Amino acid sequence: MNTPSLHAERLEALTRLLADWHWLWSPAPFTHAGTPWPERAPAGDIAACLQALDDARCQRLQQRPFDASPLAAWLPVDELARLVRVPDGAPPIQAPEAWAAHVGGRKWQQMLAFAPQVAIGQGQRLVEWCAGKGHLSRLLARRHDGSICALEWQPALCESGQALAERQGLEVTLVEQDVMAPSVSRHLGDADRVVALHACGDLHVRLLELAREQKVAISLAPCCYQRTRDKIYRPLSRQAQQQAERHGLSLDREALALSVQETVTASQGERRKREQANAWRLGFDALQRRLRGVDDYLAVPSLAYGRMPERFEDFCRWAAREKGLTVPDGIDWDAYRRRGEACLQRVNRLELVRHLFRRPLEVWLVLDRALWLEEAGFEVSLSQFCPRALTPRNLALVAQPT
């Protein structure tokens, strides 16, 4: 069990490191035609070191940024690795294969791993937050042989989930409820625990707020911290507020998004498609700088991989239309495509600096939530409920009012 002092000490150390190196990890290499960092030591040495990496080592460091990192010569790699180390939770539960009906394989494995984080006694009332079709609720109802109220704002998901629960003979009630609405508090009035697996941004912050007010136990795996109404992150806990002010740490939405950018669960095919899409975007970036006569990055809307044009030229023409640019005749499309591919090689290497600070950012945000609960009189534990290969968002907060 983590103690408040350990959470606070870890948050203080992470705040200092995130603030000290903010100038290095904050700029996004993708938006810069060259090195994104100010001309100060050790930026030049770091850039030279990264550009000298071969593809194999670059790919390894993308997946395991703390292992044998060449950046340890300049950056506090070992200290960062120590500060993000979180104890493993209980092993996943075992369940009959039939219980997994209508649930995706990876999602099912995540649920089995998260289930031990949900302790509930005989006759206690459990509420699931942002339940979707109530897959987790059905698993927990079977495991604990009890009734569960599952809150979900989309009527179609409620209807589908209720039909599944009734077909399987489970005491799960799907309730159409916007969890951001004031009316949601009535569902927590007699709840013994609220559970949320990968509730996004302000949705899980709202849960924490109500749990503090109504003294309800929670089991939470937070996600997507950047999905918030605030452009600049406002720390929740008094201690995070004080440390951020003391060290001058300010996090915008892009910094919050960086904390969840890891995609270790993508297939090889998905990674290839993402790499091609990124190279094409960089190729278009070089083209749009010429067309506009402005040496600045121009953001282009995202396209699902299935909607990406088959040719680089078609992608550029689509992007140009989106941004109101006219493409003249005589463009050497192969040259810009190759330029984009070369730029991606550079960007992937410079991004390795940011990879070192992704998990520290995420742990800092989770610690802020843990301390906010502790300041309200909760006993809080933080653990890693599954391997990152199953989901990188594998941090779980379990909190009990004392």
Structural overview:
The protein is of the alpha/beta class and 402 residues long. Helices cover 47% and strands 10% of the residues. The protein is built from 14 helices and seven strands. The chain has a seven-stranded mixed sheet with strand order 3-2-1-4-5-7-6, sandwiched between helices. Helix 4 packs parallel to helix 14, helix 12 crosses helix 13 and helix 12 packs across helix 14. It is globular, with a radius of gyration of 23 Å.
Structural features:
402 residues, alpha/beta
User: What's the arrangement of strands in the largest beta sheet?
Assistant: 3-2-1-4-5-7-6
**How would you sum up the major sheet?**
7 strands, mixed
Q: If you average the pLDDT, what whole number results?
A: 94
The share of residues in helices is: 40-55%
Rg, Å, rounded: 23 Å
Helix-strand layout with pairing:
Blueprint: H1 4-20, H2 22-25, H3 43-51, H4 55-63, H5 77-83, H6 105-114, E1 126-128, H7 135-144, E2 148-152, H8 155-167, E3 172-176, E4 193-200, H9 201-214, E5 217-223, H10 238-247, H11 253-258, H12 268-292, H13 312-322, H14 333-375, E6 378-384, E7 395-401
Parallel strand pairs: 1-2, 1-4, 2-3, 4-5
Antiparallel strand pairs: 5-7, 6-7
Helix pairs in contact: 1-10, 1-14, 4-14, 5-14, 12-13, 12-14
Write a concise synopsis of the structure shown.
The chain is 47% helix and 10% strand.
